[in-house]
Amino acid sequence: MEIYFSAGCFWGIQSFFSEIYGVEKTAVGYMGGTKENPTYRDVCSGETGHAETLRLIYNEQQISTEKLINLFFMCHNPTLYHRQGPDIGSQYRSALFYTTSEQKEIALRLKTFYEEKLKETFTTEILSAQEFKFWPAEEYHQHYAEKTGHHCPIYPSEKLWKIKLSEEAYHVMREKGTELPFSGKYNNFNEKGEYVCAGCGQKLFNSSAKFQTTCGWPGFDQSEEKAVQIRKDFSHWMIRNEVICSRCQSHLGHLFNDGPTKTGLRYCINSVALEFKPDSNTQNKQQNEHNGK
Predict the structure, then answer these.
(1) Which structural domains are found in the chain, ordered by start?
(2) How does pLDDT run across 31-43, given as a tens digit for each residue?
């Protein structure tokens, strides 16, 4: 399935969406304007009508269209007009280009839902991709963060995060709280698969890295490459290593050097900050059991 998102600098949103479970392919380019074969310089002039745009190919069996569009609204501030963060101009506007009637329906429904919840108007344009041609950007723009190590940030709206997450998840992930020990659904959980960020869907830990703890929170001895960032945490009169999602900057837990495995690491993570994705064998087994086979 194919869809197109405009949400500020395309370096940032490509980095955001490329690692999301179920997104198979991304490319950045220009869309929504009239000039043919535009260059980056042309688009930056603000005279082409094009917006910096991300083309996504995704697998509906792994991520639903609704969840993907939800992430689109969450990864930027759709109430702003022709700007995101420090980037100002019509090329940085909020827009979604749909390729199916289902995508259009979901986008309009979610836009209305969030506007009513926030009591604010979204500037997001919801347009048919058939009416506009997508012009791929220059090669050096493609996967810019991966090539250069420079991660252009995204600028999400905390008001939307508060709507998206449960009260407990928001407290943990956005206010750096902690769930009660032994209360999390993944504390005593041993299925095979991957643990992704409950906020943005980035792959964080594999089940092979999980081990049983006695502290009351799930423990992992390693994370997926570049999936998390470590920051010093000086709260509660302690010096600890905070673990955050490298994509959406949500708090996940803390890292300690007392792990029982060869890595010597213990990622102590809140269950509410995670979502579990079973591997294909487990998923097929569960489906067969559901079907009575």
Answers:
(1) 2-163 (3.30.1060.10), 177-280 (2.170.150.20)
(2) 999 999 999 999 9
